[in-house]
Specification:
membrane; 3 domains; Growth Hormone, Chain: A; two-stranded antiparallel sheet; ion transport; two-stranded antiparallel ribbon; 6 strands; Solute carrier family 22 member 3; mainly alpha; glycoprotein; quaternary ammonium group transmembrane transporter activity; 549 residues; elongated; 4% strand
Amino acid sequence: MPSFDEVLKEAGEFGRFQKRVFFLLSQTGITFSSLFASVVFLGRAPDSFWCRIPGAAELSDRCGWTLEEERNFTVLPLHLGNESVRGECQRLDVAWDTSAGCTSPLARYGNHSTGQLPLAPCHSNWVYEQPRSSIVSEYDLVCGNAWMLDLSQAILNLGFLAGAFILGYAADRYGRIRIYLLSCLGVGICGVIAAFSPNFTVFLIFRFLQGMFGKGTWMTCYVIVTEIVGSDQRIVGIVIQIFFTLGIIILPGIAYLIPTWQGIQLAISLPNFLFLLYYWVVPESPRWLLTRKKGEKALKIMRNIAKHNGKFLSPHYSEITISNEEVSNPSFLDLVRTPQMRRNTLILMYAWFTSALIYQGLVMRLGIIGGNLYLDFFISGAVELPAAFLIIVTIDRIGRRLPFAVSNIAASVACLITAFLPEDIPWLKTTVATLGRLSITIAFEVVYLVNSELYPTTLRNFGVSLCSSLCDLGGIIAPFLLFRLAAIWLELPLIIFSILAAVCGLLVLLLPETKGISLPETLEDVEQLPSHFGKCGKKRKHRDTNSYI
């Protein structure tokens, strides 16, 4: 009785059918990365803003002032009285009414100089002068409310975290494609509602839900792609990361062409509805079907794959072996129950956390400081493109483990060197820091592939989702770690990044090498993977199986 991998080899491990499914599902990376980085443009700080004095709007209408004249009457006297006060977060503690004159509205306060007039903090009535709207101007996320912009990104990451657990679990229990389509629908609906949120609270609620469903689309499409190709073709797990980078590169173009934050939000949300058409062209993962004792459906899909690939399954492929392993609902205990699984899970969780923390930390450090925001963001995304190509040319030649370790060590060295380079050669500091970002990007992309290859089919989606949830935790911590440590010493965050990356580079050497090895189907298969110091590429012996006719 043939195993699934034997049937897949006969039907074609990466034929026309898999290429089509791969291309279609890869588009998810573009929409997901746009959601991931959208806060840069949704929350763009206004070029200029100031606080209105109570009654100023009515007086301005009566006097026929232009906005510039109103600002001069409001902010200029304040600035003359105290040069450190710009009128953004403080205003004169006065009120204008109809008795105020149009030419000198402060005349009623007699001989008091503006420097002697009381000041009051501004809590509302801001006026924004900018050609493009953002959630900052929409919901007044300035001055004492500025922290709420950071909260919006933290809420999105919390949504990613919830999606990793909830939808990762659901995909292993109810099916990959079903949860993928549900997640696409959720991202689209929540994104549209967020675009028209009447207040910031509603925006946060649907920002969280969009993050949760967005994580469901990305993780599930990745698992489907890796499960329908042969062991020698799982490099597609790296290639799909290129589409994530393409989303980063495309996003500034979208933001440049659309002047409102609502338009940007709709542009990155509406394409998810198109993915619902995949219901008719992307099948359920046959590997998952086999684990749920649905051999007939799996075999039907395999015959369809063979037909589209221009091949024909042999007559004796009337049944496919499925494991004796009892199928149950996955839990965290399943990921740490056996020695190999426990070691793999803990190392992978640390690798996800470290990659995300360092990646986002270096992005924020390199910043996009001044200059053209759209061009700078485009360039920062383009820097990531070489990472996938470097992996493609090395990972199937020398394996997964060595590039995984070397990329982390290279990032560690780059961060350490950058920290001690003198400030008078900024171009060199920027160059070395960029190499560090390229290295950690490679590590980030390899962990996706390695994670999916080290879990059995019954736990794969749940395992990848749970481990990658540490990525979201790292994303939440990164800005706080960066800015708090930088307040002590500007280069201190780089020292911490260097230590974290070095430890990760050593730990991943303890993982099994999975180059050229079939995806594990059961916990027993995981335990039989080559040891970290053993030879890789050995074929596993066939386990006891039942057949499904």
